[in-house]
Design goal:
- The complex is a heterodimer of chains A (291) and B (601).
- Chain A has 291 residues and is of the alpha+beta class.
- Chain A contains six helices and ten strands, in the order αααββββββββββααα.
- In chain A, helix 1 packs antiparallel against helix 2 and helix 2 runs antiparallel to helix 3.
- The N and C termini of chain A lie far apart (74 Å).
- Among the domains of chain B are: 133 residues; 74 residues, no CATH class.
- Helices cover 60% and strands 1% of the residues of chain B.
- The chains are: A alpha+beta (291), B mainly alpha (601).
């Protein structure tokens, strides 16, 4: 009796916790509301099954508790019942899978005309590269990376000259415009994760991965790394700010292009040669902030 | 289903026993140390796995100290934390659960349940254990080398696993990879034994479709392991080459902390494919024996045949087969070809169907049964609930688009702990209580066992159920500390503290278990023969605990399936597998009806 009651209380308690607990997803800030809907559908289907199974188990434990003079029923199989359960379960699976696959199709199909920007992960900070006036990102390769060229942009590619580089600073994007996020890493796996955007993708050295979304809400959002990337993994944070068009344009005009950073680095190098050699090896971000 | 052998089939003595005798121990050392008796090897496996598992338990306490009370324990540095989670995960999955289910329960139960005298190759079986022990010792050694054990996460993803910014990248990762390779070598010896024994050494009458589901689970899991572990072995060896010889199997060109490394051209994703080609079947290597064992516990203690036996067998086999084509659902956001998502989401959700049917059949076994609510039954009920709970969150993560926001969050941690941590552990504990009278000849203390169950079950549920919601908020896994963010409410910190306290309580409650086992071994009541009135063969040995060679002069003959409970017309509510139809004691009222007539029911 008590056992059956506790089992049923576990089911009821879980449902109550689900509805009254203060812990739920953060309000969405992108177009991926369909993901949230799919999650809700899955919650309902699986929740019903969970409660049904636990309550039925509790019922059996109470109803068929041991009695000296009772015999269990001898009926090894019931093909009809088993078929019904198979069919019902399959229907439940389809109800969850179908919207999931449709949403996935949308997730991996970038709309034509989406703006692009690049996220560069390195232990343990974020860098961003925007395509500049020509709208095209210059070629890049980890083998081009030097202290002056932290993004590894190909210096010979003319498309790269006007690329806007943001190293260890906040990223701004524009509300309402679909963006394709190109993801690169220079060292180990990282994962560009902004909970409010719902999207996420690993960043892998040696290749470019992507996902896309449309920001739907202005504000400032945390960027976290979601793939273990060494001892500083938890400290790899950044900020992405979703701006209205005017704010975004203003911010963009204040940023430096690849050509500018290279020119500055050159002149600084010449200056530095006159000074005693400094110890700061990994200093690209220090240079940017010194502007 | 419950076909019985007709009475008029003549007896043919099993030939293999007469040909050669077992190697009987001649000294204390060959009896208890270098022993070839599968039952002793089972206990050796079990003890070793439990010992290293306790290390992993303590590690989980340490990481919960950090998560529940960040900044309170200054002796835990980020590098320590990452070493804790890595060692905890690796030990629990490989060195504890795999070793316990296959090396422990497999060794003990396979020969007894199929009516064999021992494993097919007792000597290889013994070597298997000693190689496993060596693997465990190498793993422990990695805690004491400069730099400590690896902190790469149990998935060991390159490039970070072998780079200097990951703790333990000196000796730790090398020793772990060597230890894994040893484990696989040891397991292969044991695994071949289990497979051959099940296929070749069953006693007469023990057809495949009369085997207890425990054996089906362990057998299928072993086949999976024999096919899956080589992928891990290959991955481990290649990574060892990358680390020691400077090859670039998994290493692209890398700029680390401003310095160009000499690697180039390798693929980090290749390792993930190899790892999960092993890693996903590994989930079922743990789950299938648990499925099998819990089926037997439920059936015996509900005094009812398992419901839908054939379906249960086929479900195990189908789940095992499908488990090889779902691995990339661990990699939906890994950057692999996005079109894989359609395939792997579909296969993953299809697995839910046979798995759900197994759950239904467990509950339908309880239905119209005569349920004894003793300790093994309680653990089985706990398993059903935690497994269903963990299984349905798998439907979230397996559905590719839902995995996008949830992957790498605490939701994943909660999911896999519930489904392959708590649920199988409840089965392990229930199984130990269930077979304890057979292994020791003594009965455990029922009250202590019940306390142990309630604290463990409810405590574990309180740990992992709310944890899903921490992940739902968006807290990533493998974070030393989350600090300040704009989206995580402070109450998450309180919940983390609560979870940590529950962890300490549940961990400490295991003392009840060890105390109960130890005390009952010396002071427990004599269990006698077949105290549960079970029908399967392992309870029908002439001696309790069974001696070397398991059976008397002749092997038992099997006439029926392992689930003849509540057979109409029979006097007792169970008919053991080795009772011939003509020898079944009939009830007084309608003794005319023979039990074999019931098989068409």
């Amino acid at each position: 009796m008590i056992v059956a009651l506790i089992l049923i209380l576990v089911a009821v308690g879980s449902v109550v916790f689900h509805f009254v607990s203060p812990w739920w997803w953060t309000p969405i800030a992108s177009n991926w509301g369909f993901i949230d809907t799919t999650i809700l559908i899955t919650f309902w289907v699986t929740g019903v099954v969970f409660v049904a199974v636990v309550v039925f188990t509790g019922y059996c434990v109470w109803k068929y508790r041991y009695q000296e003079d009772r015999r269990s029923e001898y009926e090894p199989e019931d093909p009809r019942l088993e078929w019904w359960l198979t069919v019902l379960t399959s229907i439940g699976v389809v109800i969850m899978l179908a919207p999931g696959l449709i949403a996935w199709q949308q997730y991996i199909t970038v709309p034509a005309g989406a703006a692009e920007f690049e996220v560069l992960g390195k232990q343990w900070q974020w860098g961003f590269r925007l395509p500049g006036k020509d709208g095209v990102l210059g070629k890049s390769d980890n083998r081009n990376i030097t202290a002056e060229n932290p993004f590894g942009v190909d210096p010979k590619d003319p498309n790269g000259k006007d690329d806007v580089l943001i190293d260890a600073d906040d990223l701004h994007i524009q509300i309402g415009k679909p963006v394709k996020v190109l993801l690169r890493s220079v060292d180990v796996l990282h994962d560009f994760y902004v909970p409010q955007f719902r999207g996420k993708m690993d960043m892998i050295p040696g290749m470019v991965t992507y996902f896309w979304f449309t920001p739907t809400r202005t504000g400032s959002f945390d960027i976290l790394c979601a793939e273990l990337c060494g001892v500083g993994h938890h400290a790899m944070r950044g900020i992405v700010v979703v701006d209205k068009e005017s704010d975004y344009k203003k911010w963009l005009s204040e940023q430096e292009t690849f050509a500018q950073t290279m020119a500055k680095a050159k002149s600084r190098k010449q200056k530095k040669l006159k000074l005693t050699f400094n110890q700061n090896k990994a200093a690209p971000q220090a240079k940017v902030s010194a502007q | 289903m419950s076909d019985t052998t007709p009475e008029d089939v003549g007896y043919v003595g099993p030939a293999e026993v007469d040909d050669q005798d077992l190697y009987h121990p001649k000294s204390w050392i060959t009896k208890y140390v270098f022993c070839q008796d599968a039952k002793v090897i089972a206990i050796q496996y079990g003890m070793t796995a439990t010992a290293i598992g306790l290390v992993a338990l303590v590690l989980s306490w340490l990481m919960r100290l950090q998560l529940g009370f960040p900044e309170s324990f200054s002796f835990i540095e980020p590098s320590d934390y990452y070493q804790f989670i890595t060692a905890h995960g690796m030990i629990m999955v490989v060195y504890l659960l795999t070793a316990l289910f296959l090396g422990g329960f497999g060794n003990y139960l396979i020969p007894l349940m199929v009516g064999a005298r021992d494993m097919a190759f007792p000597y290889v079986n013994m070597v298997s254990y000693w190689v496993y022990l060596t693997a465990v010792l190498v793993l422990i050694a990695s805690f004491f080398v400069p730099g400590g054990p690896t902190g790469a996460g149990w998935t060991l993803y390159p490039p970070q696993a072998i780079l200097s910014t990951t703790p333990g990248s000196d000796g730790g990762i090398i020793l772990l990879l060597v230890s894994l390779a040893l484990f696989i070598v040891g397991f292969t010896m044991g695994g071949l034994n289990y497979v051959v024994t099940v296929l070749q050494c069953r006693t007469r009458g023990m057809t495949l479709m009369r085997m207890p589901l425990t054996i089906w689970g362990i057998f299928t899991a072993t086949v999976l392991a024999l096919l899956a572990f080589p992928a891990l072995l290959v991955g481990a060896i290649m990574m060892l080459f990358d680390r020691l010889l400077g090859t670039s199997f998994f290493m692209p060109s890398i700029v680390q902390l401003g310095e160009q490394l000499s690697y180039g051209g390798g693929s980090p994703i290749l390792f993930q494919h190899l790892f999960w080609f092993f890693g996903h079947p590994e989930v079922y290597i743990v789950a299938l024996p648990a499925f099998g064992i819990v089926s037997d516990l439920i059936s015996v203690h509900a005094r009812r045949h398992i419901f839908g036996y054939r379906l249960m067998v086929w479900a195990i086999v189908i789940i095992g087969a499908l488990s090889f084509i779902v691995w990339a659902h661990h990699m939906y956001v890994s950057g692999m070809n996005p079109y894989f998502g359609f395939f792997f989401a579909t296969t993953t959700l299809i697995i839910a169907v046979p798995t759900a049917l197994k759950v239904y059949n467990w509950t339908l076994t309880l239905w119209r049964g005569n349920i004894r609510l003793n300790v093994p039954m309680l653990f089985s009920l706990g398993f059903i609930i935690t497994f269903v709970n963990g299984g349905i969150t798998g439907l979230f993560l397996g559905n590719v688009i839902i995995d996008v926001p949830l992957s790498d969050t605490m939701f994943v941690v909660a999911h896999f702990h519930m489904v392959m941590g708590v649920a199988p552990m409840l089965v392990v504990l229930g199984a130990i209580y269930h077979w304890y009278p057979l292994m020791t000849g003594k009965m455990y203390n029922e009250t202590l066992g019940k306390w142990h169950f309630w604290v463990t079950f409810l405590g574990a549920y309180l740990i992992y159920f709310p944890m899903h919601y921490i992940g739902f908020v968006g807290v990533p896994r493998r974070y030393f500390t989350i600090d300040d963010t704009s989206f995580i409410p402070e109450s998450v910190g309180d919940l983390n503290a609560f979870i940590s306290i529950a962890t300490f309580v549940v961990g400490a409650a295991q003392i009840l278990f060890f105390y109960n086992m130890a005390r009952s071994y010396f002071n427990g009541k004599k269990a006698g023969s077949n105290p549960w009135q079970a029908a399967s063969l392992e309870w029908q040995t002439p001696q309790v605990p069974p001696g070397h060679g398991n059976w008397g002069k002749e092997l038992p003959l099997v006439y029926r399936w392992a689930y003849d409970y509540g057979v109409p017309g029979a006097r007792d509510d169970f008919v053991p597998q080795h009772i011939a139809p003509k020898d079944v004691p009939m009830a007084k009222k309608k003794a005319k009806k023979s039990s074999s007539g019931k098989s068409k029911a």
